[in-house]
């Protein structure tokens, strides 16, 4: 903003009003609603400027951005400018005499007149009268170019990749989604919480935890290593899910949610797996059936997709996916996904029914669908496509022995050949599982039984209902005395779910791999910067 032009220093009240106006202009709501909020003398985002189509030319317009490309004419240069606020660039016309330093990648501030453009690709353009190169760039070595660059190549430089128009769009999609979800949960009176990242237990009991170790540095005596369990006096881990801590918080303040990074040391080198990702988790207390938890999951996703669908970010997403070589799934496929998410009444079938359906089509699968075994991705894919008819599908009541220890055992079902738990996986076409949830075992003896069965607590002394906080095994990764304690004092029936936030975004955006929906992806074998 040009303070002198506004007389800001001399007029503090006017200054704060102007600042408030500019920050309103830059706000999420503005970008979403696309309200026009342009005034002279202030530097607008490029997205705002592009929406401003005055009949008269406007002078003293200031814009900040990065040079995407430069086209030389005789007396002028056409400079294409981006600032991450929109997919489309702003076109500026700069006199050759002033074009010094206007190189691809440079950070610049241009001041000039905003005028109707004779070109087809934009309604208006900036005729620059002043050029300031605030951060020069060497275009010969700048790795991001306007031409097509493969996702694999861009992934080798995660620190520069966010400057590509597509990555800018995906960052805005993420930000808009978080704002919308925050609003959704607030409207449902959920408390947003921050459970810990460093934990003393493996929530899922699947052994996929990263163990935390302090850096080893020579101590005064010159001897090196600090044992990995010395800092916290016992082994600690990066969280795989915040669920268990959320349960403690739900017992205090009712319904809670969080969007938190979680870490999984899975050696899965696939387009769906990351070692660090964000999980959206919610926990409801005083809830006694799984239907309520599924309703929440479904309502949340429908509300999210319906709200986002109206935004300029999503319009840009569809326009980008319609381009050849866009790096996204084709536009009609992406639209189908959104339509599915926005529809009401998603199908819910039990695992037992799912196995029956799959067995009728057994010839389609490499791995035979068998009751008691986990669903393979080919099975999930079939269910997502054939049961859902485009909508996401809930598969409920999986066998007890293939699910986590904390799930509530279901009332026996005469249709089912074995014991099941009150749980669900939510499957979407193409990507398959994006969320999972369950009712939690809230009864002390039953929880202890389940832990025993799953081998979660190993020492014999702790198996007789005598688990006391702080006295569990430190080696088994199952330091869960505190979790058992929650059942001793006022534990109501409760349940919740966890949703892979990056998976969801990649599904909504039509991005082919979760590695491209995350700015700095970490996966098996890779953690670049
Ligand atoms: N909060 C949840 O229910 C998520 C669950 N703990 C999981 O990791 O799948």
TrEMBL record:
Enzyme class: ligase
EC number, as in UniProt: 6.1.1.22
GO cellular component, one term: mitochondrion
SUPFAM superfamilies: Class II aaRS and biotin synthetases (SSF55681), Nucleic acid-binding proteins (SSF50249)
Keywords on record: Aminoacyl-tRNA synthetase, ATP-binding, Ligase, Nucleotide-binding, Protein biosynthesis
Tagged with keyword Nucleotide-binding: yes
Record-annotated Aminoacyl-transfer RNA synthetases class-II family profile domain positions: 171-521
Biological process terms in GO annotation: asparaginyl-tRNA aminoacylation
GO molecular function annotations of the record: asparagine-tRNA ligase activity; ATP binding; nucleic acid binding
Protein family according to the UniProt entry: Belongs to the class-II aminoacyl-tRNA synthetase family.
Stated name of the protein: asparagine--tRNA ligase
Species this protein is from: Lasiosphaeria hispida
């Amino acid at each position: 903003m040009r303070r002198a032009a506004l007389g800001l220093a001399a007029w503090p009240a006017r200054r704060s009003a102007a600042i408030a106006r500019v920050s309103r202009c830059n706000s999420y709501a503005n970008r979403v609603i696309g309200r026009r909020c342009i005034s002279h003398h202030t530097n607008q985002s490029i997205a705002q400027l592009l929406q401003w189509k005055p009949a008269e030319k406007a002078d003293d317009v200031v814009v900040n951005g990065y040079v995407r490309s430069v086209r030389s004419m005789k007396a002028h240069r056409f400079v294409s400018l981006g600032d991450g606020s929109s997919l489309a660039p702003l076109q500026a016309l700069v006199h050759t005499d002033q074009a010094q330093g206007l190189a691809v990648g440079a950070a610049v501030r241009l001041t000039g007149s905003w005028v109707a453009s004779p070109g087809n690709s934009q309604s208006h353009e900036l005729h620059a009268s002043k050029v300031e190169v605030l951060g020069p760039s060497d275009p010969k070595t700048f790795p991001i170019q306007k031409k097509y660059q493969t996702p694999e190549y861009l992934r080798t430089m995660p620190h520069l990749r966010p400057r590509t128009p597509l990555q800018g769009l995906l960052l805005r999609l993420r930000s808009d989604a978080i704002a919308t979800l925050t609003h959704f949960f607030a409207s449902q009176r959920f408390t947003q919480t921050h459970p810990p990242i460093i934990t003393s237990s493996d929530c899922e009991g699947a052994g996929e935890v990263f163990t935390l170790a302090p850096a080893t540095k020579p101590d005064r005596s010159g001897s090196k290593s600090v044992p990995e369990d010395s800092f916290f006096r016992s082994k600690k881990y990066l969280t795989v899910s915040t669920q268990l801590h959320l349960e403690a918080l739900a017992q205090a303040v009712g319904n809670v949610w969080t969007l938190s990074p979680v870490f999984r040391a899975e050696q899965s080198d696939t387009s769906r797996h990351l070692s660090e990702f964000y999980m959206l988790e919610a926990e409801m207390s005083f809830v006694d059936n799984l239907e309520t938890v599924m309703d929440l999951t479904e309502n949340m996703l429908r509300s999210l997709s319906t709200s986002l669908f109206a935004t300029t970010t999503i319009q840009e997403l569809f326009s980008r996916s319609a381009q050849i070589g866009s790096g996204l799934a084709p536009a009609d496929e992406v639209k189908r996904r959104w339509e599915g998410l926005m529809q009401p009444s998603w199908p819910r079938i039990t695992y037992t029914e799912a196995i029956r359906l799959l067995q009728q089509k057994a010839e389609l699968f490499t791995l035979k669908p068998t009751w008691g075994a986990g669903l393979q991705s080919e099975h999930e894919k079939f269910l997502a496509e054939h049961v859902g008819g485009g909508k996401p599908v809930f598969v409920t009541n999986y066998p007890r022995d293939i699910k986590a220890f904390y799930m509530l055992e279901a009332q026996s079902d005469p249709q089912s050949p074995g014991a099941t738990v009150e749980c669900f996986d939510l499957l979407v076409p193409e990507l398959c599982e994006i969320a999972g949830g369950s009712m939690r075992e809230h009864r002390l003896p039953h929880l202890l039984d389940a832990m025993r069965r799953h081998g979660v607590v190993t020492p014999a002394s702790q198996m007789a209902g005598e688990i006391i906080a702080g006295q569990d095994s430190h080696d088994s990764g199952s330091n869960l005395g505190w979790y058992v304690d929650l059942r001793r004092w006022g534990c109501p029936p409760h349940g919740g779910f966890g949703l892979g936030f990056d998976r969801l975004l990649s599904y909504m955006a039509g991005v082919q791999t979760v590695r491209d929906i995350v700015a700095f992806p970490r996966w098996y074998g890779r953690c670049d910067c």
